[in-house]
Amino acid sequence: MRAWKEQxxxxxxxxxxxxxxxxxxSGGGVHSKxxxxxxxxxxxxxxxxxxxxxxxxxxxxxxxxxxxxQHLQQFALARVAETIG
Length: 85
What we know:
Radius of gyration: 21 Å
Order of helices and strands: HHHH
Number of helices: 4
Number of strands: 0
Distance between the termini: 58 Å
Shape: elongated
């Protein structure tokens, strides 16, 4: 991840620093399937909450999912009512 970010010149910003410092603490570099970043829930939530865009995008996704679920429920109920009535 770090090498990819350096190639693109994106090695700055809160998320980059947080991610890079966590990789340094975990002895990480590029992670393969066998070598993964281990996080407990508390650390994950802390890192996620520090990233304002991730927090907002997650909240936006939850709101849109809920809206879509309500529309789908209304559509299904209307179709059932047409079929029955």
